[in-house]
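Co-fold these.
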Amino acid sequence: MNETLAHPGTRPVATAGLAGFLQRHGAWILALAVALVLPWLFYDWSRARHSGFVVAMLSQMSMMAIFALSYNMQMGQAGLLSFGHAVFFGLGGYCTAHVLNAVKEGTFWLPTELVPLAGGLGGLAFAMVFGYVATKQRATAFAMITLGIGELVTACALMFKTFFGGEGGVSTNRMIGTSLFGLGYGPGIQVYYLIVAWTVIAIALMHLLTRTPLGRMANACRDNYERAQFVGYDPSMVRFVQFTLSGFFAGIAGALYALTYEIVTFDAVAGAMSANALLMTYIGGVGVFAGPVVGAVLITLLQSWVSLLSNSWLVYVGLLFILMVTFAPGGIAGLIAMHDPIWRSKRLGRLAVPYARVLVPGLIAVAGFVLLVELCSFLTIGAAQGKSFKLSGLTIDPQRPGAWLVGGALLALGGLGLWREGRGFRAVWESLMEEIKAAGRA
Amino acid sequence: MSDAAIRLSDVHKSFGPTPIIMGVSLDIAPGERHAIIGPNGAGKTTLFNLISGRLPVTRGRIELYGQSIDGLPAHRINRLGLSRSFQITSIFPRMTVFENIRCGLLWSMGYRYAFWRLLGRERRLNDAAERLLADVNLESRRNLPAGLLSYAEQRALEIGITIAGGARTILLDEPTAGMSRSEANHAVALIRRVTEGKTLVMVEHDMSVVFDLADVVTVLVYGRIIASGPPAAIRANRAVRDAYLGAVAS
Amino acid sequence: MELLLVSLLNGLVYGMLLFMLASGLTLIFSMMGVLNFAHASIYMLGAYFAYDVSRHLGFWPALVLAPALCGLLGALIEMHGLRRVHRNGHIAELLFTFGLAFIIEKAVQMIWGLLPVPYRVPAALDRTLFHVYGTNFPAYRGFMLLVSALMFLAIWLMLTRTRMGLVIQAALTHPEMVGALGHNVPRVFTTVFAGGCALAGLAGVIGGNYLVTEPSMAFTMGPIVFVVVVFGGLGSLAGCFIASLIMGFVQTFAVVLEYSLADALAAVGIKITASTPLAELLTIPLPRIGALLPFVMLIVILLFRPRGLMGTRDT
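Predicted complex below.
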């Protein structure tokens, strides 16, 4: 079940014109509509106010979507594993903060709407410098050098005050009064719509890039470095250009970050932020263009909601990541894409019952696991913070064995059930695929 | 005499202390179909790797139409008009068959590292790719990821990518390896057709292919050339028979 | 002079500790092509295990038990995790070990809390060994040197005198060939991986109370160990040893030398004032940029000598 080949061209050529456009990009248009409308679903009509929480979360999702997509330009499309992508995100943010401050002081003029471009150019410039060094290397050395660059920049960000503002970072104010539409950009919702606009632009550009000579050759270098040489291309040059463009888009995401939070600190370039990009992109799925967007939305959701309820949300993310690496290297989008042949041959319904049978023990196992993790966390961290473990009104004492036994039992039972039903599911899946293959040949 | 397509002058190659190629000098004329045969371990693929720039020579010179190419990186040699296929199929497995061929065309049609042109709109490029696809009989597999092709189809695709760039000099490393008799016959017909007018150098173990296609045969044994000439002469050559062909040479 | 000698000794201690970590990592990386991101996490676990064991049984049992536990854990990880992921390629292996490092850090936070734990030097060793120009040289540091020297000797003997060692040496530079010769390569791999982890655990036992034992120690130590491995070069333990010592000295001396680039320039007559461009960069004293130095070293070596000091293969 590890077929991760995404087939962009196996569909027959679609209809032309508007109908064709809608058919190919329908999902994106729907996503855009949802993004535009969603804040209003949480609007507090009685107080004429948007939910700050929802708008902040949606803003974060959008900028992380750009960030993750830019990362996938390296990982999924060019086969480059970088541990320092946040460098371009953060440096883009720092540049933007300085530009905003400069505009506010009157040093030069730039419309607010075009400020993210400043971040993009900053990301691009630094990507050219670091990329020149990094892209000469092959696989593991590349990963190491990006790690080194990331640590280097983080250390510099903490040390130097002139550009990075040292530990305190660089503060800025986005209300610089140079909007082309006369907007103040004080309220979060206005910034959100600016972010959405830039997200659409960035996603469209990155998608178009995949269909250019550079984009295709990046794929080729990923698939077969040597063969790419023997069709006349210098793979390290291909990687270099791809790397710099990826830095450009990361810089745009960083600029949006600076606009939203109005402060940029070393966190924006640090290893944790680079790890974030990696996790979002991989979990979402590197083989499908939209995969990183899925990952960004999911991780931001977990970050915003689960972190309110639990100290251990990163444990769940980490575990999800390892499970994906081991069992589902295509990520969530990859898993969905695997259903494509089944859906097109209209056999999807046959999976309903097998899925249900796997879901039940699966959920039980997850519940047990979560219980144990939370117990553990409350025993140490929670106790230090003076919090107690409350579950729908019941206070659970991690010092007593009761809850531990329940958690262990749930995990064991659910795990066993999952094992058995998993085998059954696999059998159904494989027989379905055989059927489809046979039907295709007939 | 710089009218040779490829000229090897006293080429030596050692891996550490182990010599593999020991003083090979060879001229390959333009338009010639030249086969290199020899027992396993003779250094045939190493020779290919030296010519195509995958490995550096330890000593000696390699010239392509009079221009020195030893020491140049592989992609530069390719741009000078020399293309090769590999013993172990080397294609782009996750891209479609059509994309594979199209990638082979990009550089020679001048696209370089362009990120401002959409491939879908490039009529000349796509037409050329379609023609090539037809040449190698893979039209029906157009949209399949190359990794899913059958072995023989992948070899055909590899040949397609190799000639896509319009190189004048083609190196094919065991093009019919692993094929059945009928598949090999198809491959030979394909090779003959697509290398019309070009210089072809190939490494082969299948003697019927060699004697069918080649104008000149060179025999490499333990890193040295022991014979070079028309197929009939090689077949009759005693030293070659002892070293390689054995008593049966049909 | 006094400063020099003391710093040399301290640099040596730290360098040997780094070598304990880096040697395991080099062996694993050279043989299996996997850069084990979780290596420093095992080091951290070694320290935490030692803390727990020494609380109940004492330091000396911990010295044996903690590395053993780490070795066992390493074997389990290799057999059930890495081997599965190996099929999906090098990048998948890298990601797997990265995810592992991530989870181990979170797990440690969950089990032992966010704050450093009071893992202390045992009372028996908590005294002065000798005096150097008026500064005390603690017995514990002598102990650390002893343990690391013994371990180095043991590895060297094992690699050169035992059959397994010869196979490992061969696999260091020609892993595919070793398999082709009929050796049970998976078993060799598991052994090396487990051994490397046990070494890391040992480093944790003796390093955890020398430095601080806290959940972030893996991610602080990890990158430095990587730099050492890359600097020393693939396939060479000797290179790793030299690189570890160099790193140990660099980091120790950087902390005590209160000079900056501006001072160096002043020595040749160039004066830097507050208005000189990049003044901040030039006037910052060495101790403050100590954290930067390993990564500058990494970038420099990858730029000019990607094989490392004594590497036999390209990374």
